[in-house]
Structures are given as C-alpha cells and as structure tokens.
Amino acid sequence: MATTASSIAQRPRPQLLLSDRGFNLLLLGASAAVLALIALIGVSLARGAAAGITHFGWRFLTGTTWDPVQEDFGALPFIYGTLVSSLLALFIAVPVGLGTAVFLAKLAPGWLARPMAFLVELLAAVPSVVLGLWGIFVLAPIIQKLEAFVGQRWGEFPLFTGAPVGVGMLAAGIILAIMILPFIASIGRGAILAVPRAQAEAGYALGATRWETISGPILRYARKGILGGIVLALGRALGETMAVTMVIGNTPRISVSLFESGYTMSAVLANEFAEATAPLHLSCLVEIALVLLAVTILVNAMARLLIWGTAATAGGDGA
C-alpha cells in the first residue's frame, strides 16, 4: 500500500506538465525572437544596399575611391582601416590583458585580486566618447611628440612615415586597446580559474617552477577560453565608432604607416549617413553596414564556439 501511494505521489501532475511545457515554449520564443531580430536587421540592410550591390558588384569591396560627388564608391580603405586598427589594438592589448589575467588569477593575493578585477571590469563601462575626448586632449599630444622623435631617427621606414599630427592609426589602435583590455583580462581570468587544481599540482609534483606551471599546463588547458576572449575583444574593436572616429583622422586612404590618418567602416557611417542625400551614396553606406554586420557576427560566433569548447573541457560554464 505504501509503495502504491509513493508511486502515485511521484507521478507528474498534469498541471505541472502544462506549466513546464509553457515555460519551455516561452524560452523557445524568446530565443527565436533574438534570431529573428538579427535576421530582420540583415534583410533590412540587404534591401537598403541593393542599389549599391547591383551598381558596383564585387568592385565595391576592392575599390579605393570614395567620391560622393562623382558617385564613385569603393569600401576597401574603410575595410583596411577597420582591420588594421583592430589588429593593432589586439597587438597591444593581448599581452597586457593576458598578463593581467594571470596575475589576478594566480599571483595576486585575495585582498588585491578582487578590487583589481572590479576596476578592470569597470574600465569596460567608460563611455567611448569619454575615451575619445581623452584621446584628443591627452593621448594625441603624447603621440605627436613620439611621432616626431621616431620620425627623426627611423623616418625612412614606411611604417613610420608621415607628419607628426598625433591623430591617426596609432592613436586609434591605442584607444581600441584600452577599450578591449577588460574583455581579454576578465574572460582570460575566468578561463584560468576554471583550470582544475590537479593541473597545477601535477606540474609542481614534477618539479616545475611557478612560471613553468602557469605557462605550461595551466595556460595550455585554458587556451580556448583565452582565445575566445581575444576574439570577442576583436569583435568589439571591429564595431567601435565614436572613440575611433575622434582620433583616427578620417581620411579614406590605404597606408602602411602607423602615423598616417585612416578611416573605418563604423566611422564613415557615423560621419556621412546623416548627410547622405543621393540614393546611391546612401545605399553604399548601408552596404558598408551590412559588411560590418557580417564580419561582427562571424567573429562573435567564432568566440562563442571557443568558449563553449573551454566549458566542455573544464566541465563548467565557460561563458
């Protein structure tokens, strides 16, 4: 009798089944709404860019001229400026961010690690326009002096040619590096903390030093999460607008020099979209937005896959 009563009590009740099913449908609808929103944005941009796609075809992505008066548009200078400034930011931010992550996760005492981690994450909350103003009034004069110093000694190298004006690709790369540093440091710290203690203990048991243990088994185990943070930071850098617009110089040309001005896809949208009156000009700007959206989605998807791989390896949540 007791067994029968227990089995009846454990049997799921119909109202609970209905509530669970409704809750699952609600979550499914919310997830589908996000995907539908992204698809709707892509379709809207594709429709707005149809005239530019039809008129220029693939030549739009390889053209180097941007002349709204003659209606001759090529997006290569903007694509080049976006990629170079973002990669330069990664070149600066990855060593600093990874070093910060290792220090906070493995070296810093608890009383120092917690407030430092908070301050690093707080850096991500600084508005980009504030960083842009700081870049104009503080960073640009410093870079101008640096450019004059470097130009006098190594000005014959193509990487260091150009007038020392302070604004340009180098200033944009430094500003972007400051903006993406919290992503690399925070996600890298989480990935390192997710490494099982047995990995470090095995290294110490084999006679490895702290540096050898951290640079060997620990970072090797956390590499997917660290790489995921780097790719997420790259996605953030690709789409940044205001801070880069204020310090990059906004000149649509391709130059290997770090001291020359440049232009990015997001910057040209911010500067010209409100003033574009010709239909073809407007369509080409929308096409640049479509290219930027595709690149950003691709980069963030790669980052999410890498973070999921870390979660599966560590047996925890890698997001």
What characteristics describe this protein?
319 residues, single chain, mainly alpha, MetI-like fold
The sequence of SSEs as H and E is: HHHHEEHHHHHHHHHH
Total separate domains: 1
Strand order of the largest sheet: 1-2
Mean pLDDT figure: 84
Alpha carbon gyration radius:
25 Å
Class derived from helix and strand content:
mainly alpha
CATH homolog superfamily? MetI-like
Instruction: Report the count of strand segments.
Output: 2
* Low-confidence residue ranges: none
**Could you please say which CATH topology applies here?**
MetI-like fold
Helix content: over 70%
Number of helices: 14
Overall CATH class:
Mainly Alpha
Beta-strand level of the residues, as a percent range? under 5%
The backbone outline, from C-alpha atoms, is globular
Q: What is the CA-CA span between the terminal residues?
A: 49 Å
Main sheet makeup: 2 strands, antiparallel
Description:
This protein has a single domain (49-314), classed as MetI-like (MetI-like fold). It is globular, with a radius of gyration of 25 Å. It has 14 helices and 2 strands. It is mostly helical.
Could you give the topology of this structure?
Layout: H1 2-10, H2 14-48, H3 50-56, H4 59-62, E1 66-67, E2 72-73, H5 76-107, H6 110-123, H7 128-154, H8 169-193, H9 197-205, H10 210-221, H11 223-239, H12 242-247, H13 265-272, H14 279-314
Antiparallel strand pairs: 1-2
Short description:
76% of the residues lie in helices and 1% in strands. It has 14 helices and 2 strands; from the N terminus they run ααααββαααααααααα. A hairpin with a 4-residue loop joins strand 1 and strand 2 (72-73).
